[in-house]
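so my prof wants the structure for this chain in the tokens format not the other one, which i didnt know existed until like an hour ago. anyway here's the sequence
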Amino acid sequence: MKHIVKKFPGVDALKKVDFHLEAGEIVSLIGENGAGKSTLMSVIGGVYKPEEGEIFINGRHVTLDSPAVAKMNGIGYVHQEPTLVPNMTGTENLFLGQERTNRWQMTDSDYMKNEAKKILTQIGITFNPEKRVKDMNMVEKEAIEIAKAMLQSPRILILDEVTAPLDQIGVEHLFQVIRELKKSGIGIIFISHRLREIFQVSDRIVVLRDGNIAGTLDPGTSDQNDLIQLMIGPDSCINSVSCTSRVGDCGQELMQIKGLNCNGTRNKVDLVVHKNEIIGLAGLKGSGRSQLGMTLFGLANSHSGQIFMKGKPIRINSPSQAIAHGIGYIPKDRQHQGLALIRNIEENINITILKRLSGVLGVLKNSRLAQNTRELIEQLQIKTPTMSQLVNFLSGGNQQKVMIAKWLVMGLDLLIFDEPTRGVDVKSKADIHSLLIELRNQGMGIIVISSELPELLTVSDRIIVMNNGVISAQIHHQEATEERCLQCMHMSLEEVISIEETV
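here's what i got, hopefully its the right format
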């Protein structure tokens, strides 16, 4: 790619960018949200046509003016958010628009089913592709997206935040797949905000900043500090969060969970959350951590057990009941569960308190709407030209901040964050971490569910490790290490049962 320029109204997204990729090479593309990564990849993928610049594949000049043309030129693209049809099966999505027929020109369902299983086995992620997408978890959706790209036998494969919904084991498995694809001569462009992953898998790291190439790093001779400095520039800084940011010890008991059964098995959870405390929930995929968070917000039913809020027993069978008891929930899937993308920032932030902002006749008080929005945009440092900007056009980090803002405006006692920094850049991640500590210091109780152990080690007062639906360890932040957490996460079922029986 030579001298690529792409402009949007009021924004120069790409400013004469040069980028190259070799066969059998893994290049990581990194930068803050809004740096131009997705725009550059959309140019390669034929989604956007640049105003200036040229693209060459195997030395041949090409014009990629549509995704179909990009596919014809051997470019496969796995997007950050799955672009699947919810009511169709994985196989149907995999072959959508390229259905296979038999000699009688009838749809060859058996061939497509077998081919779907074969491709999933090839990339090392096996599950039943006949399941409907709406019933799949995020890992399975990502697997279908990768399989769709591999069906084209691509020579160039773009992976945009594909590790965001995966736990550590899932990430390691995907990296094995990526390395095998590299051996076959495929050139891979890998985009991730997880800096450690970048150094694990890359042959070369290209950093974008403000629509320009800020620099290129060799992962063997550089470290995360070098990368961060290129991302944010010489005149910027990132707020760090540490134990010293905490003000005072944990307060009085806020929530108590006794014998809670979230998954219909014999396993039960006992947990206490205090004011002025951040509880980090760690665990592998299927450990029960997300199920616990959803149960506490009424998105999943408990089979037994009790929940107490400020010493009083409560029942939570729906989100409205949870909110009435002062509990909020920030989901990990912001685009489908957390935001109204075709609404603006002001509407998204105030949607949870419309009754409170209505007059006697139900007429909204526009001045209060605007005041709330301005205050939260400033508090959370949301980058936007105006509060009437549609949320769909914000970067991932700013979308995440808007989703958090709509819960802060309610003034609740306990907030549950499920993957609070999924798919956001390093600066937005630091801002969110600082916000969590600030809310904790103001007296709130917080539960953070995260696949990233460094994140939990950074913000948590206590880390609760879950394994097979039970708590296998509770570790105070002064004693917590990544090694200890991983040991508890990887306990065998027999060891976990032994801990449960002892308790």
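also thought this was worth mentioning. The chain has a mean pLDDT of 85.
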